[in-house]
Design brief:
Keywords: Isomerase. With 123 residues, this protein is of the alpha+beta class. The protein is 15% helix and 52% strand. The chain has an eight-stranded antiparallel barrel.
Length: 123
C-alpha cells in the first residue's frame, strides 16, 4: 500500500526536473566540435553570427546560412554546395547548455535519422 503513495510523489519529482537551456548564449561566437569518424577524432572550428556560420574542417572552409526557428533551433544551408548531399539543409536543436557549451541533435531536413553532438564555445 505504501508503494502506491510513493508512485505519485516520484512521478511529480521527475516531471519537475528541467534541463538548463540558455540557448541565446550560443547564437553567436566561435565554437569547437569534436567527433569521431572511422575511429579518428576530427575537430571542426566554426564561427557563427546571427545569419552565417563559417566552418573549417580538414583544412577546408565552408559557409552556411543560419535561420533561427526559435532560440534553441536553427537550420543550416550551405551557400556553395558542390554535391546533392551538400544541398540538403541541416536542422539542429540545442538540447542542454552549460557554461562551456551545449549538447545538440541534428539531422538533414526530411531525414528522421538524428545524431547527437557536443560543442564547446571558445570565444
Amino acid at each position: 500500500m505504501k508503494k502506491i503513495y510513493l508512485l505519485p510523489i516520484l512521478t511529480l519529482l521527475i516531471s519537475c526536473y528541467n534541463q538548463e537551456r540558455n540557448c541565446k548564449d550560443f547564437k553567436t561566437g566561435k565554437f569547437e566540435f569534436v567527433q569521431e569518424i572511422n575511429g579518428e577524432e576530427k575537430k571542426s572550428i566554426f564561427e557563427r553570427t546571427e545569419n552565417l556560420q563559417i566552418e573549417t574542417f580538414n583544412g577546408k572552409t565552408d559557409t552556411a546560412s543560419v535561420r533561427w526557428v526559435n532560440d534553441c533551433e536553427l537550420v543550416l544551408q550551405k551557400l556553395h554546395p558542390k554535391t546533392m548531399q551538400e544541398k540538403k539543409a541541416i536542422a539542429m536543436k540545442i538540447l542542454t547548455t552549460n557554461e562551456k557549451g551545449y549538447t545538440f541533435e541534428y539531422a538533414f531536413v526530411g531525414d528522421g535519422k538524428k545524431q547527437r553532438g557536443s560543442v564547446t564555445k571558445i570565444d
